[in-house]
Specification:
Helices cover 5% and strands 45% of the residues. By secondary structure, the protein is mainly β. The chain has 2 domains: 113 residues, no CATH class; 32 residues, no CATH class. A hairpin with a 2-residue loop joins strand 8 and strand 9. It starts with a strand and ends in a 44-residue tail after the last helix. Part of the 50S ribosomal subunit. Contacts protein L20.
């Protein structure tokens, strides 16, 4: 069973168990999010289209993390005038795991385990750096070990050469 939902001005086709990245939503990691604006429900050949939404249909999801997305560079130039400007932007986004789709007297649930480990830690583990590569503490799933804070490195002071006494001085 699948559904088409609307959030953040965009439409998404989802089914139970999908990992979904949407515009930023309020909430803490692990909290439940319900989408009541279901535009369409479908199961095989049977499709229910709402006018504009399907009555009584709801999609439930668990919020995994809120993070910044990929960098977008904005470059402006006027030729032969010496005008160049570079700006950047990173949109905030929310990662969700769809847990159930219900409506039209039917319901599809996902029975898997939701892992709340953020992408920053997963990327560090994939590079073989472990959790110590993350310089700040991030709340992770209860089954995972807590992240240790990285200790700052101390710079060694340069050694000064002792002044040797000259022959005439005592």
């Amino acid at each position: 069973m699948y559904a088409v939902i609307k959030t953040g001005g965009k439409q998404y086709r989802v089914q139970a168990g999908d990992l979904l990245v949407v515009e930023k939503l309020d909430g803490e990691p692990g909290s439940e999010v319900a989408f009541g604006e279901v535009l369409m429900l479908g199961e095989g050949e049977a499709v229910t289209v709402g006018a504009p939404v399907v009555d009584g249909a709801v999609v439930n999801a668990t919020l995994i993390e809120t993070r910044k997305g990929e960098k977008v560079k904005i470059f402006k130039k006027i030729r032969r005038q010496g005008y160049r400007r570079t700006r950047g932007h990173r949109q905030t986004e929310t990662v969700l795991r769809v847990t159930s789709v219900a409506g039209a007297g039917k319901e599809a649930k996902w029975d898997g385990v939701i892992d709340l480990t953020p992408k920053v830690i997963l990327n560090a583990r994939a590079r073989g750096l472990g959790d110590a590569a993350v310089p700040f503490t991030i709340p992770v799933a209860k089954s995972a070990a807590p992240v240790a804070e990285a200790a700052p490195k101390k710079k060694a002071a340069p050694k000064k050469a002792a002044a040797a006494p000259e022959d005439g001085e005592a």
